[in-house]
Amino acid sequence: MKSYHLDHLDYLETEAIHIMREVASEFERPAILFSGGKDSICLLRLAEKAFRPSDIPMPFLNVATGHEFPELLEFRDRRAKELNAKLIVRTVDEALEKGTAVQAPGQISRNQLQIPVLLGAIEEFRFDCCIGGARRDEEKARAKERFFSFRDSFGQWDPKNQRPEIWNLYNGRLNPGENMRVFPLSNWTEMDVWEYIKREKLEVPSIYFSHKRRCVRRGGQWVPDTDLMQAKANEEVKEMIVRVRTIGDIISTGCVESPAANCDDIIAEIAAARVTERGSRADDRVSEAAMEDRKKAGYF
Amino acid sequence: MPAISHPIDLLRFNTCGSVDDGKSTLIGRLLYDSKSLMEDQIEALERSADITGGGQINLANLTDGLRAEREQGITIDVAYRYFATPHRKFIIADTPGHVQYTRNMVTGASTANLSIILVDARQGVIEQSRRHSIIASLLRIPHLVVAINKMDLVDWSEERFLEIKEQFDEFLPRLDIKDVQFIPVSALNGDNIVSHSTNTPWYNGPTLLGHLETVHIASDWNLSNFRMPVQWVNRPNNPTDHTLHDFRGLSGQISGGIVKVGQKVTVLPSGFSSTVKQIWTLDGPLEEAFSPQSVTLVLEHDLDISRGDVIVDSEDLPGASSELHAKICWMNPRPLTPGKQYLLKHTTQTVKAAVTSIDHRINISTLDKEDGIAELAMNDLGEIRLRTAKPLIYDGYASNRLTGSFILIEPGTNATVAAGMLLPPTEIARPEYKDFAI
Q1: Complex-level ipTM
Q2: Would the CB atoms of B237 and A54 count as touching at under 8 Å?
Q3: Are B392 and B416 in contact (CB under 8 A)?
Q4: Cα B131 from Cα B368, distance rounded (Å)
Q5: Reduced to 3 states, what is the DSSP secondary structure of residue A256?
Q6: Which domains does chain B have, with CATH numbers?
Q7: Chain A residues near residue B41 by CB distance under 8 angstroms
Q8: Taking each helix axis from N to C terminus, what angle separates A38-51 and A190-199, rounded to the nearest 10 degrees?
Q9: In this predicted model, what pLDDT tens digit does every residue of A227-261 receive, in sequence order?
Q10: Is B313 within 8 Å of B296 (Cβ atoms)?
Q11: Under an 8 A CB cutoff, do A187 and B293 touch?
Q12: pTM above 0.90, yes or no
């Protein structure tokens, strides 16, 4: 007898496709946030599943810190082209030049600086909705965020005043100037993402797999040794076989020692891993409430 | 060898309980004992234990995610948690149990296959236990688990366990819950959570995790009445593939039943009939598809179809009416008053709606119906009548959670103010045109 029952990836996929189609129908000017990272790669495949054989009816937007891994940027541009999509890139450097973003004294990470750039792009293109690849399993504040995350005209998230989300009925109504962030991968875990990448045979940037890299020991983790952050005399520098688990700013993305050369290896590694994915990002370690504060300020 | 190589399914459950009965501890325990916690999470727990907990690890801190909650020591919103065992993946909707947060429980329960009600063994059934059972029943959660917690504090007494079970048996028969499992546990110490406890030799049932891993959920979706609300009309503007020049697909998530190529279907509300020519997906055409798959249907005839229309099995038509009767949960600080206009979102369409009357309020502690109600306040459950600007094509919530549910949106603020469950239709859709192609 045929089984009319979806496995977990099929279930997560149909939930996400449903959300993407709701966005295409209910918003006038939506965009997909595409960084070239693994989560947004899944988003693009889901967009293909939702909208083919038509073109994906929304542009891709990338807010670049200027501190990206070069492999990521190459991949980002190529993938957008392959999908015949319009890619819009706005950078922190431009914003610093124009003065719309200002670097706090002593601050090296450009994570915070993405906020004004994102809000600037939303205003410039009058986007009413941005689809992002955030997942609830990443972090405690995200665990409480809705699929349709309402932002006021300053881009702020108010965790105490979220719209209830019931069944598969999403309320996307906005007043002028307000904005929605939509997260179709909310219910996915890091493991689900890699299983999906494997199942769908999706290409990901090479830095997710094992490679040789000079790293600096800083803040309890190994970060890439680049021109942006010269190693200090007392810091340990070492050439290692590493991969990245999550891609952020190149100067705050921790590299993990790993021989994982393909999806199967990564899936096995995650199954055995003893540190969560965001544990390798310095920006979340500042305080336990780090993500909550960033989101309230308008972060993805 | 890859860790997970076979397809596994997914169980969604929600937990309800008041501040003190150990709900967050139970979830922390499930995550901890199923080895779903990571070093840095445990480290963060230890860090906060040193600051606020006098050195004792507090499993509840794992789920109390927002700073405001940690400060107040309560859970203020629905939080979602994820864990997996070799048998299943799990999504937990962790909902707070205070009186004022019924709306959060309704939210968490709306997508759940199973609900865990936590009872403090010392207190037995309290008003809140009844309220949670009633909400689970109203929302038609197929499976219920009553976890009788803090058994260590009643000396693992079987008598006490049976006493509490009897208290439940007094009101459960009045509810629509088919499958109930009672489990004696200690969330704090881990008894009967993952492995059987030596403290309860008199208990022969499954452990909590054992039950979650094996409870039968394959039949939780409606597979009998084919319905697909059209979400998006898929018409390529510039097809690179010239064979797709005339492609006109109807994209949507199947909200009930099974659809097959060659099946005769009717589009409502217009009533045009056609047959399914193709079930298109990116992965290639399908011979059949079922709820809740997302697909794109191509019909034999080029009909005028748009978002909000519903494609159904021609032999099995849903209800259609603009006069509706529904149970609702009110979710906004501004009360519901009859006569006020709202927007109603049902499947893929949003229509204007006016609440014509409040029949009664449902007392969620006794299930009694209270008449003569002028308004419904935040967290009230009630039965109301509505009139919509155009007829809804719907089923009763009891037969289909997706085509039988709606939300109300307040114009202006755009707040989601109510969750509604439609009572079975009294009028079946009557297509004006029986056959398009004669």
Answers
A1: 0.92
A2: yes
A3: no
A4: 12
A5: strand
A6: 9-220 (3.40.50.300), 227-313 (2.40.30.10), 319-422 (2.40.30.10)
A7: 276
A8: 60
A9: 887 778 888 899 999 999 888 888 878 898 999 99
A10: no
A11: no
A12: yes
